[in-house]
Amino acid sequence: MSNTYKSAGVDKEEGYKTVDKIKKAVGETHNSNVLNHLGSFGAFYEIGGYKNPVLVSGTDGVGTKLKVALDTKKYDSIGVDCFAMCANDILCHGAKPLFFLDYLACGKLDSEIAAEIVLGMVAACKDNNCALIGGETAEMPGMYQPGDYDVAGFCVGIVEKDQIIDGSTIKAGNKIIALPSSGFHSNGFSLVRKVFPNFEEEFEGKPLYETLLVPTRLYYKDIHKVLEEVKVSGIAHITGGGLYENVPRIIPEGLCASIDESKIRIPSVMLELEKRGEVAREEMYGTFNMGVGMVIVVDAEHAEKVLHLLDDAYEIGEITEGTEKIDLKF
Length: 330
Description:
This protein has 11 helices and 12 strands. It is α+β, with helices and mostly antiparallel strands. The radius of gyration is 21 Å and the shape is globular. The termini are far apart. It comes from Chryseobacterium panacisoli.
């Protein structure tokens, strides 16, 4: 019997099935700016309506949160996570997402699982007025074990050059406003899985995995609602490294984000992890978002308007003079 690609572990037909299962849904994310369809070698997106446009791009994955999804066979939220981790990053500069591409790698392709993951991306793209214009599915036996999947995404957005937000206008006296997270989002899951090895255990009346797999919150509508009404000086997406690593990225030299930890609304699942894993509070804040998914910095005179525009936002501190860039008071 002669060797074939299929005998080596790669089933092209399963890839074709995946495309068939997602093609219609992916097409529903397209608008008149998308100039080609799924199956081309490259994806084309026409830009119009801007005076001095700047493209803003971001790429990310889901990390070991995928293990929770794979072990519990719950795949629908992972695509949302992948999109959100990329799109939320470019929002920090005031950009609107234009289009998204995905990369899905596995040991043995199952078109049902692959389609479920991609359809999560489709739902997230629709929610953010973003087109899913391309992607790649790689079946790599020997690199990944059967049942293993990895996923990454690439998001491109746009902003007028004179409207770019980069933190450079932040000044002492500005207020720091938190937008709540929906949970762990997609960070710190190596520690989450170590402390919570049994995803099926009951937590607050339901299987723990349901809490762990709540998808990363999408902030597009919230951020742009604020940008339409208020001059924003800085935005930080709180991902890996937590507040400690992400807030300083937008703080100019000579200034400090002074944050009152007692004001932060920490989710109960994070408090349970802290207690059960005997994790120091400082380590928690350096690993997880601790309930703060986004931080917005605005002039003090605009703070109340932001809180009015966003029902669940709340103030956690202010900008002061200092050299540390962040002072998280416990």
